[in-house]
Design goal:
It is built from six helices and no strands. Helix 1 packs antiparallel against helix 2, helix 3 packs antiparallel against helix 4 and helix 3 runs parallel beside helix 5. The longest helix has 18 residues. It is flat. The N terminus and C terminus are likely disordered.
Length: 112
């Protein structure tokens, strides 16, 4: 992390995820940089999981899921076994409850 950039508290994740979905390129790039800084913290896994379950907008939940996949893989070995099991159970529950549908292009479906 550059010395001029302060650590990002995980409490900022909901706002950062919303900003990362912005149509404004400058806002999006700044949010992505702050999300990258936030990913170094192991607590980001639990915070993203919470966002995945509680975010009101489907786009926010989808982005939280993508970020969670990347961050969980990064921190998986250092997570306590109980946290890993809770993460798995919560993800399965979130998948079962998700109402929105992500549409994939036909080419993606053919190779999935």
């Amino acid at each position: 992390m550059p010395p001029t950039q302060a650590a990002v508290p995980v409490s900022e994740l909901p706002a950062l995820v919303k900003a990362a979905l912005s149509a404004d390129n400058a806002v999006r790039k700044q949010a992505e940089a702050r999300l990258a800084a936030c990913s170094r913290n192991q607590e980001v896994v639990q915070a993203l999981l919470e966002l995945l379950v509680r975010a009101p907008e489907a786009q926010e939940r989808h982005l939280a899921a993508i970020l969670l996949r990347k961050r969980a893989a990064l921190h998986w070995a250092s997570l306590p076994p109980a946290t890993r099991e809770a993460l798995k159970a919560t993800l399965l529950d979130a998948i079962a409850r998700e109402q929105s549908c992500v549409r994939l292009p036909p080419a993606c479906v053919a190779f999935a």
